[in-house]
Each structure stands twice: as structure tokens, then as C-alpha cells.
Amino acid sequence: MNRNEVESIAHLARLAIAEEEIAVYVENLSRIIEFVNQLDRADTEGVDPMAHPLHMTQPLREDGVTEADQRELYQQNAPAVQHGLYLVPKVLD
Amino acid sequence: MDWETIIGLEIHAQLATKSKIFSGASTAYGAPPNSQACLVDLGYPGVLPVLNGAAVRMAVVFGLATDATVAARSVFARKNYFYPDLPKGYQISQYELPVVHDGRIEIRLDGGERKTIGITRAHLEEDAGKSLHEDYQGLSGIDLNRAGTPLLEIVSEPDLRSAKEAVAYMKAIHQLVRYLGICDGNLQEGSFRCDANVSVRPRGRHEFGTRTETKNLNSFRFVERAINHEVERQIDILESGGRVVQETRLYDPDRDETRPMRTKEEANDYRYFPDPDLLPLVVETGMVDAARASMPELPWVKRDRFVEQYGLSEYDADVLTVSRASADYYEAVVRSGIDPKLAANWVTGELAGALNKAGLEIADSPVDSKSLVQILVRVEDGTISGKLAKDVFEEVWTSATSADGTPVSADEVIGSKGLRQITDAGAVEAVIREVMAANPQQLEQYRSGKDKLFGFFVGQVMKATGGKANPALVNDLLKSMLADR
Amino acid sequence: MHEMTVAQAGRAIAARQFGSEELVRHLLERIGRLNPELNAFLTLTEGHALAAARAADARVAAGDGGPLTGVPIAHKDIFCTAGVTTTCGSRMLGNFVSPYDATVVERLNAAGTVMLGKTNMDEFAMGSSNETSWFGPVRNPWDTARVPGGSSGGSAAAVAARLVPAATGTDTGGSIRQPAALTGITGIKPTYGRVSRYGMIAFASSLDQAGVLARSAEDAALLLGAMSGHDARDSTSVDAPVPDYAAELDAPLEGLTVGLVEEFFDEGLEPANAAVVEAALKVLEALGAKVRRVSLPGIGLSVPTYYVVAPAECSSNLARFDGVRFGYRAAQPRDLEDLYKRSRGEGFGAEVKRRIMTGTYVLSAGYFDAYYLKAQRVRQIIAAGFSEAFESVDVLVGPTTPTPAFEIGAKTHDPVTMYLNDIYTIGVNLAGLPGLSLPCGFVDGLPVGLQIVGRAFDEGRILNVAHRFQRETDWHTRSPGGAFA
Fold first, then answer.
1. CB-CB contact of C259 with C393 (8 Å)
2. Is C325 close to B279, i.e. CB distance below 8 A?
């Protein structure tokens, strides 16, 4: 991976990487990608990708309201709340 | 240059389930902020999604009603991006394998032309929360009550060729989801939302031009205006040698124009992959059969039946079947024995007018079908004239909406106001003689050839009888008595 | 008292040889004295523990107890515990107090266990040495200059040092089995879907499983039985009955075929470790098992496969940590983007960030097919390899780790070097199979683990093999002694 790629991946993942650390990330990530590139040598012709080890299908839930209003409890961990709303820097559209 | 417009619509319909698609929190509209956002909806650490069966059944019913393929096996995928109203940092949606695909719906345009529009796919996904832009010391407030509400995203083929076609399609889908009872179609509350993909190309060219996506179209009128604006904008650009930029735009109803969205997707890479917390969704034949059995008569079937069975015009049939509630009301009236055309006139005329004025839906009409039947029975049996029946209608309506809300019956109104039609020839003759005596000049003029004054005499007789004289009788008697010397 | 196993303590409490409260106080004193050096516990819940112990004693007095009533336990800090800090070893959740209990915690509480506190772990379960914890590394009681393994390093160290008779852990690529091997205890990861993941903070959803670290297979059987079973809140939990694992422990091994995985005896395996494992196999043979060599094609690619799949899933699972609804929030964010980037940049450690970025990369447009899809195909091949092997053998055995415990700081210079510690355990997670590690000897005074892998839902059998081995040997009773006597 090169520096540009690391920066754009960090942006996609919303991770701030300090300028002086970028080089180390480039090195480590390149090493990891190089490592996983070994997968190239596997012959996977005709093999389906496995998303789950279980051969099950999705169970369905009955449609009913089972959750009560516990806003106060849940917002105890909130860093910034007002009038029951979670506060974030202004969202522009 | 002759330009062709290509439009595809993406409609997000909120499914009318009681609880969310992946949690047991309520979906009811209008609750205090974050009072209906449980741990799963908040994306708390450690919680997991469990799929609401009713949402699946609603998707299946939609697939059946649009002649689509209901996938025996479909997969939920994560659409990854960061936004404050998206608590998990991903939306659970469906990507490569949607639950419904390859359907179609017929739209009818002005002039009666019919056109079939393809529905590429309809898939299940969860709704996001809402950002409130009220100022909280320069911050936005996030309400996650809506997060997790089930959505059916309905994507049309790019088969639409004008804003009018787009609106017709949107209305057809809107009507259908309401008929099926899977969505309340409330555009103001945001339970039915539409995005338009628009591009233009020189007529005859095979490849599509670059398209833009326009969002925030929450009324039929806005859809039409936004598309028209966008088409003009694109043509202007292309005709002056420029290129259309592929981007997402927002419709601004105040300015009647579209503008690019500010925070948009420097080509957002959503990194879709199958959600490992959910297993493949298998729709059993049992569920499909049950869905098929539960389907109501579809709007276009009902409309054609109304034309056939009740001898109505296509226009009237359209109006009456605009919603199931309206069609059911109408049929209740007709089944009580009222002439279908008379019933149609009243339901689409007087009743519709009163409902519109009061801002009410037919389901909340103060004059229910039984009450209307009572009125129309008296019209049909000649007790009152059609004109006076309108007054009776008003009385019944008012009484039903009054403080104590108990509606009076048509007969009570007719009786108490003495509105019975006068059909006794002798009584009418007497009135006519009085009118003739009171208006000698007009009588003279009429008898010397001013035929137009006939209407004057009709009016005078009606006035003298408080509108109750049978019009046909008045006509006949006036003709003979005025001519008499 | 602290030398007692879960089974022994449970029986003693039931027989009222001593009360749970007495045992709890004894252990809390030990923890107070010995934990500072080990850093195994992050949070102690003394008040809660004493109250629960008293309640347990009351139940026993009323004749209402079971085999686990009053038995002290610790929970890996990845399990949400209501009203108690749950950090996941991260600054991101440093002050997070969970509003709910994980299913595993609920079930073990219901079985009567008494939680003493939460144990240290590699940050968000990402690591093989417990060196990535924001709260500092955990030390191995056998040699405090060495790692205990990870990510369930705190649980392993606490159990090995006799601070608590058992602890819960999680295993995504070896995080229970590897630390169990490095600290000379018994750890089991059940079949994927056997134990509910609800309330277990997600790392890699299709690989994570909850399990147990204890000092005997008998203990593991008791606790696993209490933890297992269907949970409607976890769509990936299996609805199948839970066998009585304890009842199957003593079955004879005559006729059992044991497969030795050829690929695991490679250059990476230290010769001294290999010798200890081979000696252990002789014990199994003496018990009547037939040992034969099997090959697992594709197993050589299990580590690269894992390091595509796990980071991909975690990059998405950790997107919910954004400073908005809970967790670490950067001070004075300039705008939304700054809020996200700095909260996450400061809240997560380097290994977590590396994995998130690796995951983002392998899911991104242009790389998805070559990496993510490819890895999922190789995963299929690996799983098929196990299935095929199980056609000719009942269980698979081999070394759990290539080396004994290494020194703190010895492998942190290169992520890949660290990743290769899980080389024998990772394939088991990819295939979703059950695996355990039990102590089978020493190299230079450091414990060595033997891994036993079974068919899906065959936990009973692998516990049985481990138990029979432990009846013949005493490796599992060895204690680090010294400061931890």
C-alpha cells in the first residue's frame, strides 16, 4: 500500500492518523497486505464463498412492540445530549 | 436537437409494521425524541438484529401484486458509511440478492394511453434516524426514533420518458402500497419518499446520458417540477457544449430548482458485504401462498370491474377506486340498491367536495355510507329533488360534526325542514297562477314571443315553493298555463 | 480454597463445608494482593459479589442450589454487564457502563455463579498476547516477564494464578485456546452458534464465539452447559438441545480415532513443543485411541484467510464507535468529520486501527473480489477439508501453539509475526468447529497446550477426551506457585 491509499482508507474509516505515524502505518499495512496476497495461489475455481459456518436460514420474529422507553438509561453513556437529542457538530446537506 | 428524457424512480416506502425491522421498538410516528430507540436501534455494543416477519410478508405481497419474482433466497448486506443518523455506521439493506425483482406495473396517462413500467427490484432495508437542524449552540440534534423502521425500496427500470409519466408511476405505486395495506403513503410524514434519476439523450441514441439523482421529493407536484427543472438544466448544459456531472441534487421547493447536495459522496464506496449477523432469508411457499390469499382486489382490477359492473366512465371509476376506503364506501352505497351512476355522482361530487373542504379522508367522513344511502333513497323515490338533497346532506354533515356528534337521519331533516317535494299538480297550478298574476309584464312579453322568459317563470315558481316543486311538473304545467290565453 | 476447581467448590458449597461468601472474600483478598502484578482484572465488583454470594448461600440453605451455585467467576471485559464498566480493553469504552447483561452473563448468573469482576483483554479482542490493551499488558503468572496469550489474557492469567476458579472468554481465531495453552489451563471454544453472542461486543461476527477458561475439562463442561443454548436475540444462535456435557465426560476412549494434523507439525513448531505434544499422544493411545495422520488441505492459508475476513467484519462492526451516543468523544471537535476522526483516532489503539484499515481496504471497490470474496472461497475449502478429515477420524489433535509463552514486547515489532501465533487455532474458527486446549506438559518451565478439535456440536466428545487425559495425567493441576501460591 502506498501513502495515498493509506490516507484514503483512513478517511473512509474516519480514523485520524498523525502525520508522523503515517509512514509506520504504510509499512505495517503493506506488510499485512503482502501477507494476505498469498491467497492468490489458492485454486478456488467453482468454489462458493462461505458467509456462514452454519447452514441455517434466518429465523423470523413476530411483529410486536416489546421495547419500552428507556431513554434515560440509554443516554447515561451519551457524551452530549439536549432535550433527548444526541448532539453533533452541525450536519450540512 | 430533439432530446429524449430518461427517468427512473427510487421509492422508499415505510412498511406499516408495529415494530422495527430488526428490533421490538415501536414504529409509531410522533413520539418524543429517542423514546422509541432501543439498544438495537442505537447500535449499542453487543446487540444483534432479528428480522421482523411482517416486513417480509409485506415485501412478498408487493412482489405478488406487481407480477414480480419473489426470491426464494435473498441476502441482507451492510452498506457502510458514516452519518450521524446512521447509528451503526452501516445500514442493513439488500444488495446483490433482493427479496423481490423483475416486476411491472401499468400506468395510465392523460388521454387514456397505457404504459407498462418495469420494476427492477424491491428490497428490504432499515430506515435511518433524523437530523434536526435546530440550533443547539451550533450543534445538530439527532433523533433515532425512525432508525430501524422497515423500508421497502422500490426501484423502477429507467422506462419513464417524462415528468408526467414519472408522477403517474409514483401515484400508481402509492395507490398500490396503500391498497395492500403495507404502507400508509403519508408523504408529509415521510412514510413514502421518492428520488428521481434523470438523464437526457439525443433521440435515437442508444446509450444513456449521464444521470443525476434528485432527492427530497416529498409531493407529487415537487416530483414533476423537479424533474422538469432537471431536464431543462441538463439540456442547457449539453446544448452549450458542457457535460452533465453525475451527482446527487436536492430539490428546493421555494426556488423551484435543484442544487447539488453539499456533503455528498465524493463517490462514496459503500463496501457492501453480506451481513454476518443475519442468515440468508428463505421465503417458503407457505408464506407466498398465504400472502397471495390475503391480497385484496388490486386497484386496476377493481377499476376495470367498476367500469364493467356499474357502467361507470373510466374517469369516474378511477376517482372512486383511488383508495380502497373510497371504493368500499361506494360499493356499500350501491349494494344498498342505489343506482350506480347516481351514487357515483354523489360520492365523487358532493361528498368529495365536502371532504376536501374539511380536509378529511373518506374513512373519517361524518356522513357514512349508510347516511348517504338514506339521502339517495329519498332522491330516487322522488321525496326530494336532487337540489334539495344537497341541503339535506349539509344538515346531516353538520349534525354529525356538531358538539354532541350524533348525526340526524335524512328523514328527520326532510321532515323537520319540510323539504318534501311538491308533486301535487293542483298545488303547483295554484302557485303558477299567483306568479303569473304577480308578473303581468313578463307574461305579456313571453306571450309576444320572448321565449327566454320561460326560465324566469321557472325561477319564480321554484322561489315561491322554496325549491320543493318537482321540476318536471313545473315545466309541464308552466308550458301549458303560460300559453293559455 | 483457591486451589479448588469449579466442580470441587460447587460441591463443597452445596455440602456447606464453607459458604460462597467465605470463598469470595478469600479470592477478593488474593486478587487485591496479586492482581497488581498480573493486571488480569480491570474492574472488581466487590459489593455485587458479596451480595450475590450471600444470596447463593441462602439458596443453598433453602435446598435450592445447583452444581454452580455460589461459585466465583470472572467475565472477560468484552461481555456487557449491567451497571458495570465494560471496556473491551479500550480507551474507546473506558467509561462505558453497560445498561444490559449479555446472555452469557444472564445464564451464568441464573446458574448461580458469582461474578468477582471483569478481566483485561487485548483491545476489542484483537491480539494474541494481551499487549494491545489500553489498560496495560497482562502478565503470565508462570513468568511475569512473559505474555499470557490473548485476547482472553486477563481471564487466563486470573484462572492460572488461582485468583478465580474460572472465567469466560471469547475466541475468534484462538483467543481462548492460545492463552489457555500459554498459562497451563483448559479452555474451550464451542461450535459457532452454540452460545449466544448477544451482549458480546462484536469483533468478527462470523467467527466470534464465547467460551470458558478453567482448570479442568470437568469445569469447562459444567460452565459450557450453563452458557449454551438458543437465544432468540441472536439470529446466528442454533436452536438445538444442549447435551449434558458432564454426563459424557467419563466415556472410555477405546475405538476412538484421533487424527494428527500433518500440516501442524511444520517448521514453525518448536521441537521441544512437538516432543511434549507427541508424548501426550502416547497417553491417548494408551487409553485405547487410535492415532493416525490426516491432512488438511488449504489449512496453510488459514492465517491469511482470517486476516482478510476478520478485519473486514471488524471494520464494519467498529463503525458504531463514533463519539455520538456512547464511548470516547474527542474534545472540542471542529466539525462532524473531526469528531469522527479524532474520537476514533484517539479512542482506538494501533492494532485496532490497523485491522479496521485492512478491513476497509479488502472490502473496497476494486479489491472486494480479489480479497474478501477470494478469502471466503478459501474458507469454504478449509471447512471442506475439516469435514473430509472427520470422515475418517473422530477428533483432531495437535499443538495449540507453535511456541510456549514469549516475552512481553518480543513480537510487537511486526504484526504478521504476532498473527502467526494463531496458526493452529485459526482454521477451527473459519470452519466454525469446537476446539479446546488442555495442558500437556512443560518446556523450560512454561506450559504447553494440546488442542483437540471436534465435529460441529461434538463438544461432549472433545471434553470427554480431555477429561480422560486429565484422569491419567496431572499437568492441569500444576500451579505457577511462587508469588502465586
1. yes
2. no
From first to last of its 485 residues, chain B has per-residue pLDDT tens of 899 999 999 999 999 999 999 999 999 999 999 999 999 999 999 999 999 999 999 999 999 999 999 999 999 999 999 999 999 999 999 999 999 999 999 999 988 899 999 999 999 999 999 998 877 888 999 999 999 999 999 999 999 999 999 999 999 999 999 999 999 999 999 999 999 999 999 999 999 999 999 997 889 999 999 999 999 999 999 999 999 998 899 988 888 888 888 655 556 899 999 999 999 999 999 999 999 999 999 999 999 999 999 999 999 999 999 999 999 999 999 999 999 999 999 999 999 999 999 999 999 999 999 999 999 998 898 888 888 899 899 989 988 877 676 778 888 888 777 777 787 888 889 999 999 999 999 888 998 888 888 888 888 888 888 888 888 888 898 888 888 76
- H or E segment to which residue C353 belongs: helix C350-363
CB C337 within 8 A of CB A14: yes
Task: Render A13-28 in DSSP notation, one character per residue.
Answer: TT----HHHHHHHHHH
Assembly ipTM? 0.96
For the question of residue C196 being annotated catalytic, the response is no
Do residue B90 and residue C232 have CB atoms under 8 angstroms apart? Answer: no
Assigned C-alpha cell, C421: 501465533
CATH 1.10.20 fits A3-40, yes or no: yes
Q: Which residues on chain C are in Cβ contact (under 8 Å) with A60?
A: none
Q: What is the 3-state secondary structure (H, E, C) of chain B?
A: CCEEEEEEEEEEEECCCCECCCCCCECCCCCCCCCCCCHHHHCCCCCCCCEEHHHHHHHHHHHHHCCCEECCEECEEEEECCCCCCCCCEEEEECCCCCEEEEEEEEECCCCCEEEEEEEEEEEEECCCEEEEEEECCEEEEECCCCCCEEEEEEECCCECCHHHHHHHHHHHHHHHHHCCCCCCCCCCCCEEEEEEEEEEECCCCCCCCCEEEEEECCHHHHHHHHHHHHHHHHHHHHCCCCCCCCEEEEECCCCEEEECCCCCCCCCCCCEECCCCCCEECCHHHHHHHHHHCCCCHHHHHHHHHHHHCCCHHHHHHHCCCHHHHHHHHHHHHCCCCHHHHHHHHHHHHHHHHHHHCCCHHHCCCCHHHHHHHHHHHHCCCCCHHHHHHHHHHHHHHHHCCCCCCCCHHHHHHHHCCCCECCHHHHHHHHHHHHHHCHHHHHHHHCCCCCHHHHHHHHHHHHCCCCECHHHHHHHHHHHHHCC
Using the Cα atoms of residue C186, residue C189, residue C195 and residue C196 in order, give the sign of their dihedral: positive
**B131 vs A contacts (CB less than 8 Å):** 88, 91
Number of continuous H segments (helices) and E segments (strands) in chain C: 16, 11
pLDDT digits (tens, 9 = 90+) for C31-87: 999 999 999 999 999 999 999 999 999 999 999 999 999 999 999 999 999 999 999
| Domain range list for chain A | 3-40
Per-position DSSP letters for C251-295, written without gaps between them: ---TT-EEEEEGGGSSTTS-HHHHHHHHHHHHHHHHTTPEEEEE-
Name the pairing type of β-strands B51-52 and A60-61.
parallel
DSSP secondary structure letters along C410-425 = SSTT-HHHHHGGGTTT
C275 phi, psi to nearest 5 deg? -65, -45
Residues C143 and B94: their CA atoms lie apart, in Å, by: 51
Q: Is A57 at the interface with chain B, CB within 8 A?
A: yes
Q: Which one, of B319, B339, B79, B27, lies nearest residue B186 by Cα?
A: B27
Closest-CA residue of B relative to C373 is B273
H-only helix segments in C137-216: 153-160, 177-182
Under 8 Å CB pairs connecting chains B and C tally to 97
